[in-house]
Design goal:
Two copies of one chain form a homodimer. Chain A is built from eleven helices and no strands. With about 240 residues, chain A is mostly helical. The first copy, chain A, has a domain of about 45 residues: Orthogonal Bundle (Arc Repressor Mutant, subunit A), CATH 1.10.10.60. The longest helix of chain A has 22 residues. At the A-B interface, helix 7, helix 8, helix 10 and helix 11 of A face helix 7, helix 8, helix 10 and helix 11 of B. The first copy, chain A, binds a DNA duplex (19 and 19 nucleotides) through helix 3.
Chain lengths: ~240, ~240
DNA sequence: ACCTGAACACCGTTCAAGT
DNA sequence: ACCTGAACACCGTTCAAGT
């Protein structure tokens, strides 16, 4: 019957599925609805297909998670503009710092990515390429391979632009009054922590209690490591 | 009928469930069978009860995961022997280092714990107590609260004794020959990484290719941060 | 070659009901 | 007070069957 009506929307000519489309849609769902919304059924829905159809293009859900990590790290590669070691490298520290902060920008666009990167048992090719690039910068900066190896471990996830925040970033539910009340209640149990939080709040009255500028803290920790590595380099 | 036989085992007088028993059993399952084996049904089975009975003692599975993290951190508290700041503290760096390495020992007994600690949205009381202890050591060591705050962020998960290893620790499946073959295949694509791995293998022929001594690397990274903090302390 | 319906073996969880 | 059976709404996945 719908054929009769002139104004009827022509049904979208079905775009065939593909691994790329599946992965792109997966990243989209994670970005917009959170990683827990990424189920096979929901993903298929988003693509106008059935869950079972996905298995024709990917082995299983783990493969999707692998692919999604790969996609994010390729986004870093794009942001960095490729991993070629600059021929005129005169400051390995600045070069490394810049790459890592660019990686961080990508991670901030995909806040769910760190959590799933850490669950991968084996690193994607894209990640190996990224680390190869970092190793190149260090090597051309004068590092021994032994020190490069230590550097990779010391940086850990910071190399990819994130560090696991052990306390929750910030809770939009809780008010300043709540926080103040809680602080007073805990003051005798946790004097050092309370004093610390109090000082932070004093230094920066705009920040909610217990909330920290993650960017500044990330850079502080990163610089601590980079400077430490520089010390080792000079001593060698 | 079983009542008649003398040798019949008396049926275990049912020990009532409790939050503590549930959590202890949960830690046991995660230790022995891995965290993915920790399901409500399996946990109840282990306790000789039905899954639904657990809900009388804990709110839900999230609460069990919270409790299990709490238990692990209390194990750290025990290993450290309480978090009292030594009255004769003459070396904050050694004191902090020791606490963190003791925490690491506990984490090595519960290799699944880091992964689930990172999924907690809010820290347990036991964790706050632990960090209070670290803050105390730093404060009595002469740190400003501002620097203590930076230190906490810079340490990140290292404060609790673990760092996320981005490459898999080691794969018992793959042989040295496999690894050598793979290395040669990748040598032109990833010259720096291959050279790095080659040098490690050369320095320590006992280690499998690509495998690293996590303890040494953990301590290297930790010392980098502690020494960096010392620099900030002396400069202040 | 590509997609799907029906079905399976699992999850966590609710609720009314049992002792 | 403490535990459970039946049931629900979800998972990921297999497989034979459709076009």
């Amino acid at each position: 019957m719908s054929v009769a009506t002139q104004t009827e929307a022509v049904p979208e000519p079905r775009i065939p599925l593909s691994k790329e489309r599946v992965l792109r849609a997966a990243v989209g769902i994670a970005d917009e609805e959170g990683i827990e919304a990424l189920t096979m059924r929901h993903l298929a829905d988003e693509l106008g297909a059935e869950a079972m159809s996905l298995y024709y293009h990917v082995a299983n859900k783990e493969a999707i998670l692998d692919g999604v990590v790969e996609a994010v790290i390729e986004e870093i590669e794009e942001a960095v503009g490729g991993y070629e070691v600059p021929t005129d490298l005169d400051d390995w520290k600045a070069a490394l710092r810049e790459r890592i902060l660019l990686a961080r920008n990508v991670m901030l666009r995909h806040p769910w990515a760190p959590g799933i990167i850490e669950t991968r048992r084996t690193q994607s090719l894209a990640a190996v390429r990224y680390f190869e690039g970092l190793a190149g910068v260090l090597r051309e900066g004068g590092f021994s391979y032994d020190l490069i190896h230590h550097a990779m471990h010391a940086l850990g996830s910071r190399a990819l632009g994130f560090s696991q925040e052990l306390f929750e970033p910030d809770d939009p539910e809780s008010s300043d009054e709540d926080a103040t009340a809680m602080m007073e209640a805990m003051a005798d149990q946790f004097p050092y922590i309370i004093a610390m939080l109090g000082e932070i709040a004093h230094d920066d009255p705009d920040s909610t209690l217990g909330w920290c500028d993650d960017q500044i803290e990330f850079e502080f920790g990163l610089d601590l490591i980079l400077n430490g590595l520089e010390g080792h380099l000079e001593a060698s």
